[in-house]
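#lab-general

N.A. 3:47 PM
ok so I finally got the sequence cleaned up, no stray characters, all 350 residues accounted for. can someone with queue access submit it? mine expired

B.Y. 3:52 PM
send it over

N.A. 3:53 PM
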Amino acid sequence: MTIFLWDTSHYDGPLTSAIMKRAKVEGIVGVTAKIGEGSTYDDPGDAAALAAARDAGVEFVGGYFVPRSTSPVSAQVDACIRLADRDEPWWRTFPGWFWQVDLERWPTDSVPASVGIDFAKQLRARTGRWTILYASKGQYGDGLTAWDGPLWNANYGSNPIGDFHAVYPGDTSPRWGAYSGKVPTFLQYSSNATIAGLTTCDANAYRGGVDQLRALIQGAAEAATTRGDRMIVMAHERGSNVDWAGDGVFRYQVPDSAHRANLLVVMGLQGDPNPSSVEFNPGTLDALGPVVVSASSGVPTVGGEGVVVLSDAQLAAIAAQVTSAHDALTDADKPTIVDAVKSALRTGTG
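B.Y. 4:20 PM
back already:
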């Protein structure tokens, strides 16, 4: 069985809910849209297109980013995650989300394989999401052996115009040939395909079923969230300079620069090569987990602002509780006395 995906950008025009619903009916099971490029370019069409695909019930939805050789890779990964958090904040909880890294040799920037591979590895490590490297055999040949993930080839043949089903060259086409030591997982076989009534679309195929692709995409995310200790993410809301740390189960406010520095070290030890605070849209920080410490002092530390200091009156009340319990009982009943003190502290009566 073969299933089909649609690779889009703002060049395809506004991709409405109606268009995405039609594409799904026609047999499109996955959609990717360009998020950005380099360290500064922001594609204007991804937010609407990907939300429309999600709302239409397309199971596999992803964002793609075009790395360039003109700025540090880490800064470009920062930009990719920042833009996705702004335009698709739901990507962190959407089970069918995946990343596509668009590595190409442009007329003005012949991006080397090492840049795309480094970008893909950093993005995968920082997000725990299935990441596929779009890099054609025609441009990169066997120069991608350092990439340990899946490949997405592009080979249009004579690039005929027509329905995306009709122009597919077939599962045995030589365009599926191996390169850089592996058979490509996806094949972009046309840029002149018709999808949902739109022409000049980029059509892609996967030689397998929905269940198989789901296992690849969701399996990667599940492995990232279940291996050993939970991964820590540090984030803040747009327009705020207050950082929060969370692992999807709990989160707390980062109280000071010392805590922030320590968190960055821990994030680095967990596999993030360039740890930093990511930016969330307002109201979406719950993706980090529910608040467990919200006071401005953050997590209590010995000798810090978070230490609870009891007043003389409180201490006297606790002593009275202890005395009252002790007068009524023998020394053999010390556990009961201890429980009475704990109850006083726990309930606020002490």
